[in-house]
C-alpha cells in the first residue's frame, strides 16, 4: 500500500514500504536515520519536488515531480506512462513543462546512491 503521511509517525509503515518526501535535505539530517535503516537502501528517497516544479513550471507545485520520482523509486509505473497521463491532462506547453518536471525528478531519483 501507498500512504501519504502528514507527520513523522512511520510506526504503521510496513518494513517493505516506501518513503518519498518532498525535501532537499538528507533524510538522516531531518531525523529519519532509524527509518532509513529499518527500510533499507533504496526504499526512502528525498526529492526536492517543489524546487523542481519551480524550475520547470515557474510555480511551487510538487505533485508532478513527486509522480516522476515515485515511478523511479518503485517501478510500479513507467516514466512514459506518467508523461502520457500528464500530457492527456495538460495541453500544450503546460503539459510539456509538467512532463519535463516529471522526467527531471525521475532522473534525480534514479541517480540516488541508495536507489542504484
Short overview:
By secondary structure, this protein is mainly α. It has helices spanning 33-39, 49-57, 63-74, 79-89, 92-111; strands spanning 19-22, 44-47.
SSE inventory with pairings:
Layout lengths: L18 E4 L10 H7 L4 E4 L1 H9 L5 H12 L4 H11 L2 H20 L5
Walk me through this protein's architecture.
Residues 1-6 have low confidence and may be disordered. Helix 2 (49-57) runs antiparallel to helix 5 (92-111) and helix 3 crosses helix 5. Helix content is 51%, strand content 7%. Strand 1 (19-22), helix 1 and strand 2 (44-47) form a beta-alpha-beta unit. Strands 1-2 form a two-stranded parallel sheet. With 116 residues, it is mainly alpha-helical. The chain contains five helices and two strands.
- What fraction strand? 5-15%
Uncertain stretches: 1-6
Please state how the strands of the largest beta sheet are arranged side by side: 1-2
Q: In sequence order, what are the helices and strands, one letter per element?
A: EHEHHHH
Put simply, the count of helices is: 5
Q: Give the N-terminus to C-terminus distance in angstroms.
A: 23 Å
Number of strand segments:
2
Helix proportion of residues, in percent?
40-55%
The average pLDDT value, as a whole number, equals 87
* Overall 3D shape: elongated
Decide which structural class fits the backbone: mainly alpha
Q: What summary fits the major beta sheet?
A: 2 strands, parallel
Radius of gyration: 14 Å
Amino acid at each position: 500500500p501507498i500512504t501519504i503521511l502528514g507527520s513523522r509517525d512511520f510506526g504503521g509503515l510496513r518494513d517493505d514500504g516506501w518513503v518519498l518526501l518532498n525535501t532537499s535535505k538528507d533524510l538522516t539530517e531531518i531525523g529519519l536515520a532509524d527509518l532509513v535503516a529499518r527500510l533499507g537502501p533504496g526504499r526512502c528517497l528525498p526529492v526536492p519536488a517543489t524546487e523542481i516544479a519551480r524550475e520547470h513550471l515557474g510555480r511551487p507545485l510538487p505533485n508532478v515531480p513527486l509522480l516522476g520520482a515515485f515511478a523511479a523509486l518503485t517501478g510500479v509505473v513507467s516514466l512514459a506512462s506518467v508523461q502520457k497521463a500528464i500530457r492527456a491532462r495538460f495541453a500544450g506547453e503546460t503539459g510539456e513543462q509538467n512532463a519535463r518536471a516529471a522526467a527531471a525528478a525521475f532522473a534525480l531519483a534514479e541517480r540516488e546512491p541508495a536507489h542504484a
